[in-house]
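Hi all, long-time lurker, first post. I run a small reading group and we've been trying to get comfortable going from sequence to structure in the token notation. Rather than ask abstract questions, I figured I'd post a concrete chain and ask someone more experienced to write out its structure so we can walk through it together at our next meeting. Sequence below, copied exactly:
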Amino acid sequence: MTSVYKKKDSNEYVFNNNGKKLNYFKRSLYTACKNAGFKDMHIHDQRHVFASKMIKSGTPLFTVGKLLGHKKSSTTEKYAHLVPETLKKRLTTYGG
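-- Answer (accepted) --
Happy to help. Here is the structure in token form:
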């Protein structure tokens, strides 16, 4: 997904059950993935996809780390291999 979505309701939680917090989010995600035909999908996979897309779109590693709640920058640095491609793309875009 490359677009940004605005919430259409006033619920505090993005994933909710009639406005209430989902207490069993992992189970709900597992069921949704199973129903969609995805095999071997885990919640951590979604975090990795989120981080990878942020890095590839040019978001600094520091910012991604903060969004993911990483306490150490070394945890976020595993995504650094995605940065050279982004830097080259930006350089080309701005006349490099």
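A couple of things your group might point at:
The chain is about 50% helix and 5% strand.
Residues 43-56 form the longest helix (14 residues).
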